[in-house]
């Protein structure tokens, strides 16, 4: 029997006690595996100087390694300690599109995202990650308060 996969759009410690705990609880009940994804936001529309473009690749690698160390690895350790099979990845780009595409690519059964989003003006104008995922995800999306 193939295990279902639940995607967890994980932002870090703020989501540990709510989102990650709930996803682990659901995975335990359903006998499912987790795929934890953290996306470092990046806008292709930002304007960079030629020097910043040159440094960009190196900075990206550094940021990805740091995010893996302080965000993803601890989350995977928590899932493993709970007896849940879990994989994970750090990506760079637009959160909603990447998480939704990952859910489709992995054939996920469900997607979990925290509600902890921003109250900033940009979130009000461009929409939040939870609402964006609820609108475009191809799988049921659970927004965890």
TrEMBL record:
Q: Where is the signal peptide?
A: none
Which CDD domains does the entry link to? USP-like (cd00293)
Under the heading Pfam families, the entry gives: Usp
Q: Which InterPro entries match?
A: Rossmann-like_a/b/a_fold, UspA
Q: Which residues form the UspA domain?
A: 6-145
For this entry, the protein name equals UspA domain-containing protein
- The source organism is Pseudooceanicola algae
